[in-house]
C-alpha cells in the first residue's frame, strides 16, 4: 500500500511537470514566408491561426503555428506582386473570440514615402467572413477618397495614411489616419456608409495622426494611440466624437515611433498594449479611460526590426504577448524569409 501511494504520487508529480513543459510558450515563433514584411499580426484564438498583413503585396497571410503551414488571400484589384498602388497596413477581428469577421486596412503605397509622398492616392477597407480560405473574397470593400474629401472640407487638412481599424459592439468599424492630421473614419457594419467620426488639429512633424486604434468592449470606448498624445479616448455612442485626452500616470516618454495598439482581455478587464520600439507599452484604467497607468517591457531584437505591433497568443489557457516586426529595410523584393515573433514579458498585463 505504501509503495502504491508513493508510485501514484510520483506519477502525479511527473504528469504535472510534463504539463508544465508542454504548456510553456516559445520564446520565439518563426514565420518563414518570403518577403512577408508583416506590418500587423493578430491571433485568432478560436481557430488557432495568425493573420498577418503582407505589406507590399497587399495580401493577408494566414499562418498555422502548429503545422507551420500557411496560405495567402489575394484581394482582386487591390493586391499585387509588390509594386501595387495599395499596401496592407492593418488587420482586426470583429470580436476577440469566436469572431465571424476579419477586417483589412490598405493604405496608399506612397503615403509613407516621405521622399515622394502622396496624400491623394487610393486607400481602402475590406471585410471578410471567417474562416478564411485561399479563395476568400471580401464581403464588402470601401474606398476612403470621399471621406477624405469631407475631412478636408470640414477641417482644412486632408488626412491620409490609414493604418489600423477597430470594431465596436455593433459591428461598426473605425479606421485611423496617421498622416495629414489625426482623424478617424467610421464605417457602418454593412459597409454601406463611410463617415467622418473624429478629428483634431495636428502638432506638426511627419506623422501627426494616430498611429493605432483599438476598442475596449468593457468600457465601450474607442482608444487611439500616438499622434498628439500617448492615448486618446472616444465615445462610440455618438455619430461624431470629440477627442478625450487620457491622463497618463507615469513617464510615457517620447511620442516618436508609436505604432499599433491592441486590446488584450485579462480576466474580466481590458489591458491595451502598444508598440514603440524597442518597448511594448501597456495601459490599464479604472475610471473609464479618464486616466491610465502604464508598464513597459523591451527586447533588444526589436530596436531596429521595424517593430510595429503586439499580438496576444495562447496555448490552452496560457496567455502570452508577442512582438511583430516588418523589417522594412528588407524592401519590396529583398528576399528575407524569416519573420520571427518575439515573446514579451507578460507581467506588463498585470496591474
TrEMBL record:
InterPro entries attached to this UniProt entry: Mala_s_1-like
Keywords for this protein: Signal
Signal peptide bounds: 1-23
Name used for this protein in its record: Major allergen Mal f 1
Source organism (scientific name): Malassezia equina
